[in-house]
Design a protein that fits this description.
The chain is α+β, with helices and mostly antiparallel strands. The chain is built from 2 helices and 6 strands, in the order αβββββαβ. Strands 1, 2, 3, 4, 5 and 6 form a 6-stranded antiparallel beta sheet that branches.
């Protein structure tokens, strides 16, 4: 199993490639992402660039998180694009690839995402809100070569992490 890479690794600042969701390598990658996420305490999402793979694939599961309002359980999406975003609010974010910092990031509280599912290649539309929407946007950013640090309002919005999970 691959290790999570940390900033300033170049893969984290490079936009990932679109993938063929029916490719067996992409299906294996999807399974590996879920396995790593589940084995990492406090982790609610993981994108391919975070394990050194420049690809537009990520997983999310906010089930049981205290900030989650609604949840779709564990899911993996390929080539995801946000097609609607509303209810913008600031919130604190952390990241396994930036282990020592958190930051205040303004994100949409409701999103609609169009993507394809690994394995089948079927189109999929996800409507997410609250914390799940934040997690999905965070992972889509990873696939686009962005970290939450690229979205903070300034140095005043970056904080030392106080709790390590």
């Amino acid at each position: 199993m691959r290790a999570v890479v940390t900033a300033p690794a170049s893969v984290l600042s490079t936009p990932g490639e679109a993938v063929d969701p029916t490719d067996p390598e992409v299906v294996r990658l999807a399974a590996e992402l879920v396995e790593i996420m589940r084995g990492s305490p406090g982790c609610v999402g993981l994108a391919a660039p975070q394990i050194g793979v420049s690809a537009q694939v990520f997983c999310v599961d906010v089930t049981g998180h205290p900030k989650a309002v609604t949840t779709h359980g564990t899911f993996v999406l390929c080539n995801a694009k946000i097609v609607e975003a509303s209810r913008w609010r600031p919130g604190r974010e952390g990241c396994m690839s930036v282990p020592d910092l958190t930051g205040d990031v303004k994100r949409a509280g409701r999103i609609v995402v169009e993507a394809v599912l690994p394995g089948t290649g079927e189109p999929f539309t996800l409507t997410a809100d609250a914390f799940e929407a934040r997690a999905v946007q965070h992972e889509i950013d990873h696939c686009a070569g962005k970290l939450f640090l690229d979205r903070v309002a300034g140095a005043h919005a970056v904080h030392q992490r106080k709790v390590y999970l």
